[in-house]
Specification:
- With 490 residues, the chain is of the alpha/beta class.
- The protein has three domains: 52 residues, no CATH class; 224 residues, Endonuclease, Chain A (2-Layer Sandwich); 163 residues, Endonuclease Chain A (Endonuclease, Chain A, 2-Layer Sandwich), CATH 3.30.870.10.
- It is built from 19 helices and 18 strands.
- The strands form two sheets. The chain has a 16-stranded mixed β-sheet that branches. It has a two-stranded parallel ribbon with strand order 8-14.
- β2, α7 and β3 form a beta-alpha-beta unit.
- The protein is globular and about 80 Å long.
- The termini are far apart.
- The mean pLDDT is 89.
Amino acid sequence: MNLNLNPIQWPWWVLALAVVVDISIRITAIIVIPRNRRPTSAMAWLLAVFFIPYLGVLLFLVIGNPRLPRARRRKQDQINEYIAETSDHLRFGTLRPHAPDWLRSVVGMNERLGALPISGDNGAHLISDYQESLDAMAEAIRGAEQYVHVEFYILQSDAATDNFFRAMEEVAARGIPVRVLLDHWANRWKPNYRKTIKRLDAMGANWHLLLPMQPLKGRMQRPDLRNHRKLLVVDGTVGYLGSQNVTDSSYNLPKNIKRGLHWVDLMVRVDGPIVLSLNAMFLSDWYSETDEILSEIDITHPASGSGDLDCQIVPSGPGFEVENNLRLFLALLYGAQKRIMIVSPYFVPDEAMLLAVSAACDRGLQVELFVSEEGDQAVVYHAQRSYYEALLRAGVRIWMYRKPYILHTKSLTIDDEIAVIGSSNMDMRSFGLNLEVSMLVRGAEFVDELRAVENQYRALSRELTLEEWLKQPLRSTVLDNLARLTSALQ
């Protein structure tokens, strides 16, 4: 029996064309990909294109542009211009005296990059219990007399959030406007999405999707861009922001329930002039999605605050020219003189942040990092782990919050009177792809509250040592390093 095992004989011109196309792809990639892109991100994309040319090019075309569509960027420019023009109306309260010169320059940098002006005479208090924060927000909603503004990355109607939704229903029944924004992609595939939408419709809420992926309606952008902000404003007098979504602590996902995972979060209740800045943040996102300017909303007459904290709202995301949150974090890390406490569920630093953290250790500062012992997102979890050895060798103390809990809080405390809290992780996604909101706070009493929460986290964590880490099996190291490479694909 004579079997012909020769490979298919392609015509010479087909092979030549394939070679020309392959070389053209590689040359074009070298010209196009590095332009205005971080070196690590550019290198990761080039590796993808060189090793898997056709798939790499396809991925780059789909998710290679970290910017919002041009029309949405124009809207963001209009919003920034509006904020700049009205900034004087948002300079409320009396700032605390004797601020360090370096902090004043950080505040000025934030404002130049698109942040709201810093304001004084604010009250801010933390709520670290998951259900307690949902119920506190519900009670704030029930007290509404003018309007309720709700903006959350994930918003689900379930047993844990029923009180929150009932509060919105009661307010809407009194004829008070309830405006709701929720991220499209983050909610679209959640178990209670249809139930949630029906409930919003039934109560008469004016709701819209953030960054909707609806190609048939002409609404498209990079599919993994997210509006990750979490905030609530009632009447311009009371506000909430932080890391917590409006959903059960398991997110109602079967895989989380099976593993017994529950999220640990932190929200901050604010009052005083800073609420107007938080409301301006909501109004800008509302305009981005609806083209509607809510001119009837007053952001020029603040209510009195219950404290005298200095606060500044700092938005960030792909609508801005640079990574506002990353620059804020870096400036604070270099300004620190005594101690740095970082709480971030997804800590995947770029070179600049890794250098700032290690330099802080070299300067003799106390640096501690709180992360989760168990991860809910495999790629990010392994990418984060790839930095542990370098951090431990630099002198960072790493605390791993014990499973089955996912520590989801995002906070940074500097020395004894500076803090940042909000929705932003310290990872590539939050720096470049997510729309985030952070609040810079100056005030020892607020830092003391955060220190108390950090102490709770430390008591519920175990410390990771370099000796333990060096015993990691080879397969874990390989996974971590591969995930580290993919984290740069932005």
